[in-house]
Design goal:
Layout (H helix, E strand, L loop, with lengths): L3 E11 L3 H12 L5 E7 L2 E11 L6 H16 L4 E8 L5 E6 L1 H10 L1
Antiparallel strand pairs: 1-3, 1-4, 2-3, 4-5
Helix pairs in contact: 1-2, 2-3
Length: 111
């Protein structure tokens, strides 16, 4: 049985045209967000989204966060910080995965 996950995604810093590209990458890699917020913050754009669905078959939370981040990085063609905060529908326990520049270099080398 696959469990449904509630996921909050944050991506920053982005250029003014990149939030829509991030949203498209998320939609293609997993599901369309139920809620999206794009706003300017300290001279750059912040993208936030909330989604709820089962994780892709065979993925644990770490693998899911990495594959979603790679999809975003490939779509915009560069590094941005990605934070994935996820919890399973039947628990209040939330896990946060923050993917930084070191993760970007490691994961993009493997693609």
């Amino acid at each position: 049985m696959s469990h449904c996950y509630h996921v909050h995604l944050s991506v920053y810093p982005l250029g003014s045209s990149e939030p829509l590209r991030v949203q498209a990458a998320v939609r293609e890699a997993w599901v369309a967000p139920a809620w999206v917020n794009r706003r300017e913050l300290r001279g750059a754009w912040l993208f936030e989204a909330v989604m709820e669905a089962p994780l892709p078959e065979g993925d644990d939370l770490a693998a899911f966060a990495e594959s979603l981040s790679v999809a975003i990085w490939q779509r915009i063609g560069r590094y941005v910080k990605v934070v994935v905060d996820a919890s399973r529908e039947d628990t209040d326990d939330s896990r946060r995965r923050e993917l930084g520049r070191t993760d970007y270099l490691k994961l993009m080398r493997a693609v």
